[in-house]
Please model this.
Amino acid sequence: MRAGNILVHELIGLEVEVIHSPNIHEMGIKGRVILETRNCLIIGREGKRSVIAKGSRLFLFRVDDGSSVVVLGDRLIGRPEERVKKV
Model:
């Protein structure tokens, strides 16, 4: 996986940080994506799970090659297997 094609790949297992959210309590949450639903990312961190809506959020993903990519959560809404069709 590379930063340029993150929208067409599996997000589970990637390191992620919420860098913008309308809910100030979500900003700065970082961890590993442990599950993805149509509208949410479930982020595991320090033994806890945070359910973060995808919409109206900005996420910073760290991909396998060590680079980081900022993704608008609205572009992630939908079932993961159907995300490829939107690109």
In short: The radius of gyration is 12 Å. The chain has one helix and six strands. The mean pLDDT is 90. Strands lie at 15-20, 30-36, 40-45, 48-53, 58-62, 68-72.
